Amino acid sequence: MNETSGRKLIVAFLVRGVAHELATALYEKLKLDAFHYGHGRGAGLLHTIAVREMTEVDLLSVVVTEAQADEAFDFIYEAGQVDRPGGGLVCQMPLARAAAVGLPMTLPESQSEPS
């Protein structure tokens, strides 16, 4: 994904423990492989700072083409159960810049066995 014109970035804040399974499903069902997921912690703005409870969440970022954007967004929304109370948040935006980084699918034969 060197060329970013016509690309979208989908970012999802999900219930802790959901992102890994969702990323696997994105790859298996939609053949999307330009994603990253991790974990974070935060608090809502409904209470004063003194009584805010920190919540752990999963963060999932996916780069898609404009043609894939609606299908991927809907899939993340439904499979990530964002539609339920406390289920998270999903947003989509045009992708301004990105750097493509790829790993080889297999190691060269000389590096595949330990010495």
Features:
single chain, 115 residues, globular, 30% strand, 4-stranded antiparallel beta sheet, 3 helices, alpha+beta
Task: Describe it.
- The protein is α+β, with helices and mostly antiparallel strands.
- It has a domain of 66 residues.
- 26% of the residues lie in helices and 30% in strands.
- It is built from three helices and four strands; from the N terminus they run E-H-E-E-H-E-H.
- The chain has a four-stranded antiparallel beta sheet with strand order 2-3-1-4.
- The radius of gyration is 17 Å and the shape is globular.
- The model has no long low-confidence stretch (mean pLDDT 83).
Nutshell version of this structure?
The chain has 115 residues and is of the alpha+beta class.
Strand order of the largest sheet: 2-3-1-4
Assign the structural class, choosing from mainly alpha, mainly beta, alpha/beta, alpha+beta, or little secondary structure: alpha+beta
- The topology string of helices and strands comes to EHEEHEH
| Approximate strand percentage | 25-35%
The Rg value, from CA coordinates, equals 17 Å
Mean model confidence by pLDDT: 83
Unreliable runs: none
Shape: globular
Number of strands: 4
- Percent helix: 25-40%
How many DSSP helices?
3
Distance between the termini: 35 Å
